[in-house]
Amino acid sequence: MLKRWIAAAAMTLVAGIAHAQQQTEVVLQFPYPELFSETHKRIAEEFAKVHPEIKVTFRAPYESYEEATQKVLREAVTNQLPDVTFQGLNRIRVLVDKTIPAPLDGYIAAEKDFDKQGFHQAMYDIGTASGKVYALPFAISLPIVYVNLDLVKQAGGDVNNLPTTWDGLLDLAKKVKALGPDTNGITYAWDITGNWLWQAPVFARGGTMLNADETKVAFDGPEGQFAMRTIARLVTEGGMPNLDQPSMRATFAAGKTGIHITSTSDLKKTTDMIGGKFALKTMAFPDVVKPNGRLPAGGNVVLITAKDKAKRDAAWEVVKFWTGPKGAAIMAETTGYMPPNKVANDVYLKDFYAKNPNNYTAVSQLALLTKWYAFPGDNGLKITDVIKDHLNSIVSGARAKEPDAVLADMTRDVQNLLPKTVGAAK
């Protein structure tokens, strides 16, 4: 009896060792732990149920998209990359230029009925660079308008007929601000990473950052003038305070701001912070003109950086699951982001959106989605900082009354940082 027990125990131990040896470890790293830690933990738990042969290990999260990119660029040199990395949508280009991520076209082509799992061309387009797919989108955000309905009522506004234009929003903001010295009419999260809310009003008017061959600034035309003048009006007419993004969120959630314009990614956090203190409603981004108006997709994508083939194959299973229906649905339920996966939106999240209409606002804008633009060349990240500095001169009030002059200065400075030849711009 004892011999049989020892033999059985030995076989169990051997089987356990064999299973551990057969497991392929995939090391994964993602940004913004305050938004995504619980999300990735829950997806990993579901993934383990269907892929026991793959062990997902998390590295300490990146604090931001900027840190994520800089860290991967350094780790590519020292050969210390994770197998899978989540990066800001506007950071794909710089990583592809350094030949860091693996192309996914072969994996995608080998999948049967991939469209039935909710994958589609627009998902591939977001992660395409130099004609190849290098990333799949995980969490997508678009800019939306957050409204404190209680303050709107107090200001005499019609909560059933809220304004949908910048002119209307500014008129309402003035009324809300008139409620008292401790109340803000409107805030605009202009300092979101990557000049996201500078690109939004330019793209919404049908404009672009650069011309077609990326040799010349194109945001200095009517679209950019409208965008810069509008940001200036937020200060001069709307009385917008000079706050950073977290402070804007906190002030709005405390019931001190009538209208706040930011990313849908803030929705869950903001709703939790409000805690039922007032009625919140979200609306679409204002003044998106037809037929060419678009909005930049924010959020993050997932890339495979593993070099070993077995690791890459296992990493592909991870990428598929995280961006597939189940992973995408978990992501939407635990954050304010929306999934680009069709099955997740149409099937898994149908009841969720019915119960949470504020979350559906961004989904209703999906047809307007375009790429979050990344500037070309070695100065791409520097250009982002230069634009931010010029926008700050408006928001701080220093140059709020001369938006056209700020735009001219910004155009000159960005043009000087662009690659000098068409070839370099590519």
Automatic annotation (TrEMBL):
Position of the signal peptide: 1-20
Record protein name field: ABC transporter substrate-binding protein
Keyword field contains Plastid: no
Entries under Pfam families matching the protein: SBP_bac_8
Annotated InterPro entries: Bact_solute-bd_prot1, SBP
Family matches, as PANTHER family: ABC TRANSPORTER SUBSTRATE-BINDING PROTEIN, ARABINOSE-BINDING PROTEIN-RELATED
Keywords: Periplasm, Signal
Main location: periplasm
Keyword Signal: yes
A cellular component annotation (GO) from this entry: periplasmic space
Subcellular location: Periplasm
Family: Belongs to the bacterial solute-binding protein 1 family.
